[in-house]
Structures are given as structure tokens and as C-alpha cells.
Amino acid sequence: MIAKRLQTLAPWRNAPAWHIAFSGGLDSTVLLHLLASLAKTQTLPSLYAVHVHHGLQAAADAWPDHCQLICDSLQVPLRVMRVQVQPGASLERAAREARYQAFSEVLGAGEVLLTGQHRDDQAETLLFRLLRGAGVRGLAAMPAHRPLARGYLVRPLLALSRVELEAYAAEHQLKWIEDPSNADPRFSRNYLRHGVLPTLTQRWPQAVASLARSAEHLSEAQGLLDELAQIDLQTADQPSPFAWLPLPSLALGPLQALSDARQRNALRHWLAPLTRLPDSDHWAGWNSLRDAKGDAQPLWHLADGDLHRCGERIWWLPSTYSEFSDAPFSWPLPHTPLELPGNGRVWCEGSPPEGPLEIRYRQGGEVMEVPGRGRRDLKRLLNESGLPGFMRGRLPLLYQGERLLAVPALAGLWPCSPAGWQLHWVPQSCDQGLS
Fold this sequence. Notes:
It is found in: Cytoplasm. InterPro entries: Lysidine-tRNA-synth_C, Rossmann-like_a/b/a_fold, TilS/TtcA_N, tRNA_Ile_lys_synt, tRNA_Ile_lys_synt_N, tRNA_Ile_lys_synt_subst-bd. It is an enzyme of class 6 (ligase). It holds the Pfam family TilS_C. This protein is 36% helix and 19% strand. A six-stranded mixed beta sheet has the order 3-2-1-4-6-5, sandwiched between helices. It has a four-stranded antiparallel beta sheet with strand order 7-10-9-8. A four-stranded antiparallel beta sheet has the order 11-14-17-18, with no helix packed on it. The longest helix is centred in the middle third of the chain and has 30 residues, at 207-236. The chain has three domains: 2-206, HUPs (Rossmann fold, 3-Layer(aba) Sandwich); 237-321, Uridine Diphospho-n-acetylenolpyruvylglucosamine Reductase, domain 3 (2-Layer Sandwich), CATH 3.30.465.60; 329-433, no CATH class. It has helices at 26-39, 63-74, 91-106, 119-131, 136-139, 162-171, 188-203, 207-236, 252-256, 260-271, 284-291, 378-385, 389-392, 430-433; strands spanning 17-21, 46-53, 78-82, 112-114, 145-148, 151-154, 249-251, 299-302, 305-310, 313-318, 329-330, 338-339, 345-349, 358-360, 367-370, 374-377, 397-400, 403-406, 422-426. By secondary structure, it is α+β, with helices and mostly antiparallel strands. α1 (26-39) packs across α6 (162-171), α4 packs across α8 and α8 packs across α10 (260-271).
């Protein structure tokens, strides 16, 4: 009966491989046994088990050997990965982040990671996030599947209760690890599992099933909000006047025309792949950025980068995007492209002047010769162009001695020099700026 529930895996049967997150506990032991048994009668992708050793307690040192014995008996290859858990306010969160980083390293393109979370876990997640004041996305709890690294994370047991898993384990005489930390009430999930949910089920026997069902409803509601966000973002996703600048951006006007709630919904959807999302109180930063005067250049600090406003457009810059060297670079061979550390590359089209050339960055007060206009302040030229302020310090300038010869020919803002050559620049992309 329980094996029939694995029909949810049908969409993933053509994946190159299935990796089972195998802690050695009840849930993952049942999942591994189920899949290994199914593989004997059906054609499945290659199965692999992955055990992540966090090194947080002495008892865990014996778990890889236990997992190896189980995998050997089921003829499933096992990979043990040791991780370093970074200290912080939440040990649970830090351990989870380290674990999923390890899983991400395992997954190849199109491969699937299968985890053993069940219906009781879903109910705990909903309660935990409800008490933290989560919105619809958080209260949708754990999705049945989502992208992970180059592959997918799939939770095939979400419709099953822990009681059903225990019955399966007893029927097949499975042995599993009992993690001592799972009984420690100092951890929030353990407190909910052992102190809160039993009390709720005494009064409402179907509490766990009802909570899990509510999570399904909220997941459906989040899907509708995502569809609305996509509609709103289509209007704001207008071409940038700086098509050469490979950074995510949106037109501000279409967003301002929406209600506050729809603005936040659209931005959450747009920012979700880029950064951890702000809490409710932190959204005041968006209001300040949105309502700033047109000639201001405000920014909104977020967990993994900054949202900049330049005129009537907003731009996303990841935190690591600012990490570039502004030291001068000699360019002895201007006929070949020059890589600029953290700042893309430059090259010359045509025949640049002979002599020692150098790439420098703005210090202020630069003046250059513009064909047909004479000598002009670079600052004024940049203001005329509308180039976003956060890019002006990254603009590579070509010097011969103390003479500013050229700035990159960006979107035709500066015409060819009388000698018929141009300096071109391909900036660092947003993906390159992400660690």
C-alpha cells in the first residue's frame, strides 16, 4: 500500500540519477528501502545514497558505519560527506544550510535528490513558520518538489504519516538510528514535536492531517500569487537603455502603478532567486527607494546585495559585485583583449595609438576630447548619458601617459575617434558576481 504512494515519482523517472538523502533515521531508512525494493521490479534511474556528517555530536561518528551496512545490504552505493557547520544564532538553520550545500555539490544536471520528510514534518513546519509570522510563501511549508542546484529536490513521502512509516519499518524489520538531539526541547522543532503537537492531537485527533492540508491550500494560494507576479513583472520588464549592462533591472513606473500589496508580491517573486527575502518590517526600505526624488540615487540593502534606483529604473547588484580591483593596469598589447579582475574585459576595435597605454578608473575631474564637441568633463558626459551611478566607478578609462584617450563606446554614447578606433568593454555579469 505504501509503495503505491511513490507514484508521485513518475515525472522524475527519466532523470539521470536519484540520490537519497540518507541520515540513517526512520524516514530516510524507509525511503531507501522502498526505492531499493522498487528497483528490483521496475526500471528506475541509478540509485545513490548520501550521508551528511555534521560533526556536531560524538554519537554521530558511528552513523556512517551504520549507513554503510544498510546500503551494502540493499546494494546501493553510499557517499559520506563531512561538512563544517558555521556557528550562529540558530544551530538548526546552520546545519540545514551546510547539509543542503553538500547535497547541491552532489547533484548533476537533471538529477534528483529524494528526502524523507513526511506529513508530520509538514505540520511542524507550518506551525513553526506560523509562530515566526511567515507569509503565504512560508506557510505553504515544504513543497513536494523544487529546483536544487543543477537538479531537483523531491519529497515523495509528504502524504504519509510517521505512523505509516513506523508500520512499514516494523513489517520489514528495518533498523534505524535514533538521533539523541531529536529529543532536546531546546530546539524549536523538537519542542513542537514533543510538547505542542501531542497536546493538539489529544483535542483534535486529525490535527496533523489538517495542518498538512492547510499547507497544501496555502501552496495553491502561493501559486496564484506567483502567477499574478508574473503578469505584473511582464509590464515592468521593459528593455533597459543600457542593454550591454548584464544586471537584472525593472522599470519603476509600472510597479508604482500597482497597489502596495501587489508591488511587494511582484518584488518578492523577482528577488527570490537573487537574495533571501526581507521580513515585514524591512519593507520600509522599498518604500523609501520607490518614493525618492527622481534625481536621487537611493539603494535598499538586502541580505545578499543591494537594490539601486537610478532615475526611473531599479537595478539589482549582488554583494560580491563590488569586489573588483581599481588599480591601474598597463596594456602593452591593445590589439588583444585585456581581462580586468572582477570587472569584465576591454578591447580595441580598429588601430589604437602606439605607445604605452594604461587602463585606469575615475578619480574625479577627468576631461576628454569628444569629436565635434571639443574638450568635455567626463562627469557631465556621464550625467547626459544617464549611466547608473553604481557603474561609473567601474568604467575603464584608456590613458596614454596623463592623457585620457577614450572611454568605452557604450551604446553609441561616444562616437568613433577621428582615427577610427573604439574602446569596448564587456562588464562582469550578475552571475559572475555571485559566489
